[in-house]
Q: What sequence folds into this?
């Protein structure tokens, strides 16, 4: 039991009574009976301050009204509006992170807490979703977040039930996914992870903010995002993203290397399609220092035959060198993906994100999650970029990654409400070095 | 050979000719013959762009003059003064990080690159020091830094020779140290790591900026900092720091928990003395919301008997929960330590750092590195805080940690130039969960 194992630094851990009762009184939670439940954990939410140990009662402020779950020092109350330093801050936002005990999250959570992603006037609550197996590690992560004393990080809670963790979240960063077992191919992974994302979609639908933004990182991320979206009909389909930003960043770096320029000179790079080996890094529309890339890099053979492979092999090469997968740069790319939605896109540029295809101007099949070029006004929303070139070479590759995503969708019909699944994925297209 | 193992994304790796020749022409490097050399690695510095692969010649700017070592995309040239976005930036600074392939660095390097530590108008060059064994992992780290596209990160080089890596550095963050072997106590660790820090001190003395700031994290960090300082007589003794900021941060969090307030209410917490179990977290001078802490926390028994243990056991508890040592929060505390030196200390507050005791106003023995309360005007320098209370309880504990540091100093006499070592450390005082 986690309670018995609590650190001596926590005087006495206990379930917050109001949290316990809320599990059974919230009518939304009655939907849980239809969901394959993982083992229940009655004491999954901890609060390490008992009322009689708080020596200085601080007036309970509006900010903490309705706060039911907390970890350690994040159980203490505060009033942002009462203080000179913080009264101009925005209202607190809730951010859920799944796979919170994993290595990518271990980088990302500290970035979020620092203010680097959402801004230095944006206080945040982090809601960490883990598993039964990772629960102690989650406590360790929460302890390290405590010890970091980030002023903007006002609340941290940990849990293993998405219906609790996703309550009122404005952002859900879905990183957790089962890794591939030995011999497992993409189809097997689609099924096993699809079930997780179907459940998480239902939970988001039930308890998250009605305009929650959802970024899926766990693989296969495009189809996981589709499954999640289909199970959350009350959240706009446009709000679901699959992460292809690491691929975009890697593509920009390789184009910079090839052109012999610093990477800040490379813009307008689109990753099209699936986050798999069928993905299409687009050099046709890319620019170097504002000029069409092909005017600068004239090695067409390299662009057509080597460039894509280099990007796709990057993760595998990194694992060989570094001994583990690329957690730090993945976390950076997640931060980039979020920042691209909450800050205006620079004039003339765009960013890639795996988004819902309905209404796209490129002729891509509807009803899949496909990475495309996006622009944002910084309000969390985006629009697809209209003026992009598509030549025969690009089109042929778009068709291939589109076909793969349509096949992946057929594999998960049982999870999207479209009926029976029929799985005919022709080959294993997992990227080297990915889970 | 690292060259043969280079990733396919690097068209052709080669030693930069000017870098090779500089190894033998720099008169400072002739001192190397007196230093116990680790195995030489002639191709330790890589540049993955061959001149004939750079298709767009960019005018070589002043910024990159004299640049001899580089990794991947960081070999490309740039001119910060030529561009609207960057021309108001400060001049590039060189930051060396040892133990660069380790987990603490894996968090810290990305923080440095993001601008979070040195500011968003401060371009940086990262010079990564690793070992023969970790060289491939260093390449992996450099690849992830490339893929992160941080605009402020202009140069990255990797190496295993401190005389190359420390060239012209303004900051040296010395994280790397040998971990304790089975059965090894503090005395053994002092000797084995002391030799590393003696060598690195000599290298800093020979090639670093004359006003370089040196922050020692590798344990036993106080005495390692002393050894490093003694071997670098040309760098002001005041510039050497041993990290006790993680202890300070943990102390603040525990005091906040105990007081039932958010951690931003806790100030004026000093960690005195050694980064070991004799360290003295000072609750006498600490404040909660501007009031003396003891007016708020009246559980004197807890303060005197439990508080220090809780902080010291924190690392051990974290390892049990999280399965590894606290890399993320350590990196945060390193960032905090640096920021405390380059931004003015808030009015009335202070921060802890292990610094040279000569001239201290507390009656601490001279000629050791002892953590004390510091204030900075934000210029990289600091002054010791004069108006602190020292009562009998605090004094007794200061004497104990002082005695330990004097004993540690006797253990490393052979490394500080004071003659033969005489080691009489009475007990093992390594902090739980530390290397």
A:
């Amino acid at each position: 039991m986690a309670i018995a194992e609590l650190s001596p630094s926590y005087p006495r851990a206990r379930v917050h009574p109001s949290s316990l009762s809320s599990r059974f009184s919230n009518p939304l939670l009655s939907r849980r009976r239809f969901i394959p439940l993982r083992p229940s954990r009655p004491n999954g939410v901890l609060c390490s301050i008992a009322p009689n140990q708080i020596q200085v009662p601080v007036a309970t402020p509006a900010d903490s009204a309705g706060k039911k779950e907390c970890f350690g020092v994040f159980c203490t109350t505060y009033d942002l509006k009462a203080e000179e330093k913080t009264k101009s801050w925005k209202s607190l936002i809730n951010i859920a992170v799944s796979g919170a005990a994993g290595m990518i999250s271990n980088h990302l959570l500290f970035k979020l807490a620092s203010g680097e992603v959402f801004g230095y006037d944006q206080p945040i609550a982090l809601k960490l979703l883990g598993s039964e197996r990772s629960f102690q590690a989650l406590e360790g992560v929460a302890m390290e977040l405590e010890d970091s004393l980030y002023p903007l990080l006002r609340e941290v809670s940990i849990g293993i039930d998405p219906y609790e963790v996703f309550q009122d979240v404005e952002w859900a960063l879905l990183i957790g996914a089962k890794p591939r077992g030995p011999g497992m191919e993409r189809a097997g992974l689609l099924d096993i992870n699809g079930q997780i994302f179907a459940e998480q979609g239902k939970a988001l639908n039930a308890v998250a903010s009605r305009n929650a933004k959802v970024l899926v990182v766990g693989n296969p991320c495009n189809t996981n995002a589709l499954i999640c979206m289909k199970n959350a009909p009350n959240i706009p389909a446009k709000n679901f993203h699959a992460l292809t930003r690491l691929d975009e960043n890697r593509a920009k770096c390789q184009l910079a290397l090839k052109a012999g320029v610093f990477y800040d000179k490379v813009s307008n790079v689109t990753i099209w399609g699936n986050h798999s080996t069928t993905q299409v890094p687009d050099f046709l529309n890319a620019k170097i220092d504002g000029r069409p890339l092909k005017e600068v890099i004239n090695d067409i053979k390299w662009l057509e035959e080597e460039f894509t492979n280099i990007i796709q092999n990057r993760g595998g090469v990194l694992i060989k060198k570094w001994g583990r997968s690329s957690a730090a740069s993945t976390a950076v790319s997640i931060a980039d993906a979020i920042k691209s939605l909450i800050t205006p896109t620079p004039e003339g540029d765009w960013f890639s994100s795996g988004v819902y295809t309905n209404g796209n101007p490129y002729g891509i099949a509807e009803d899949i999650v496909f990475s495309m070029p996006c622009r944002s006004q910084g309000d969390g929303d985006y629009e697809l970029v209209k003026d992009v070139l598509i030549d025969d070479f690009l089109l042929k590759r778009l068709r291939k990654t589109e076909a793969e995503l349509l096949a992946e969708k057929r594999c998960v019909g049982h999870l999207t409400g479209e009926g029976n699944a029929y799985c005919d994925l022709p080959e294993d297209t997992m990227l080297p070095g990915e889970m």
